[in-house]
Amino acid sequence: MIMCRANIWGNIGLSLEHWEIYYRGGALATCPTNAEGGYDLELRDAWVEFFTGLPEKASILDVGTGNGVVALIALETGTELGREYEIHATDLARIDPPHHLPDGEARLAGIHFHPGVATEELPFEPESFDAVSGHYALEYTHIDLALAEIHRVLKPAGRARFIIHHKNSLLVQNANRSLRHADWVLKETKIYRLLRRHIEAERKSRAAARNTWHELNLAAEFLQEGLREPGAALVVGVTLDAVQKLLHLRSKLNPTAMEREIARVEKELRASVRRLHDLVDRAQGDSAMRDIEATAAGAGLSVLERVEQRHAGENLVGWRLTLERAQ
């Protein structure tokens, strides 16, 4: 059965636009990342080990690639080993990593990116790849259809490795905390709505503006108090800084431009909230992972490994699942 890509995405409850906004921002990877924006320590080691086991001139497919962080690790691993890997990278989002990443054209040279491609409908011939990779990718698909396609494009004895969000991971804990902080901003204080009201009141009269200024300050004080909670700076601190900057702009911009700027800032936060909900909703527990293993077996892929993936010591960041197609 052929499904249109828009329906595939919609049926699993994700919003493509929010992820495209994130990728256009130039981030190489999602958390946890190092100072250069990529994966390091145990996470990078897991991928280096996987790509090191491939033969000379191996063909690699990275699905759900985003801005190409794992494809880049494959490229760097091949270079370090003196091997010429053929690397393809797909994503349903309209990605353009060579242009979205700083120095992307040079940094990603040799990786063939395929935007607008669903893992459930890969545009490659059967038995095209020695290896398939996916970092926080498989769980965002229709897993049964995706695994069937991965089996189709893998060569006999080809392997696939996925890092999958874990329900008990540090990332999910942090995401839930940030979602709570976003609720303070968007639902409890409604600070952007209050900011709009105040700016409108200023145009009418000083008396009206005094009342709205008081409301806006109460909301800001509530959020300022919330900054005492660990991790609140990621959402609350950024919001307070944004509101301060917007207040400085109100004397420089006309009403239409001012509303556009407030809407842009609020939209960025709402997009981040949607991405965090996607992460939490797609995180897998032990029972769900057993279901994935059974689905993989039904697609003709044997499970070589399923372990909890750690980072920087004991920080749980996901599951590591390694599969193999029968010869």
Report on this model:
The protein is of the alpha/beta class and 327 residues long. It has 2 domains: 5-169 and 283-325, 3-Layer(aba) Sandwich (Rossmann fold); 174-279. It is 51% helix and 17% strand. The chain has helices at residues 5-11, 16-24, 41-52, 69-81, 97-100, 104-107, 143-153, 170-188, 191-202, 206-226, 236-249, 255-282, 286-298, and strands spanning 59-62, 86-91, 111-115, 129-135, 154-164, 301-311, 315-325. It has a 7-stranded mixed β-sheet, with helices on both faces. Helix 2 crosses helix 12 (255-282). It is elongated.
Instruction: Enumerate the spans where pLDDT stays under 50 for 5 or more consecutive residues.
Output: 1-13
Intertermini distance: 26 Å
Tell me the CATH architecture of the largest domain.
3-Layer(aba) Sandwich
Strand element count: 7
Total number of helices: 13
Written as H for each helix and E for each strand, in order along the chain, the element string is HHHEHEHHEEHEHHHHHHEE
The chain-level structural class is alpha/beta
Largest sheet: 7 strands, mixed
CATH fold assignment of the largest domain: Rossmann fold
Question: What is the CATH homologous superfamily assignment of the largest domain?
Answer: Vaccinia Virus protein VP39
> What is the percent of helical residues?
40-55%
Using the coordinates above, name the CATH class of the largest domain.
Alpha Beta
Could you say which overall geometry the principal axes of the C-alpha atoms support?
elongated
Q: Which percent range describes the beta-strand content?
A: 15-25%
**Domain tally:** 2
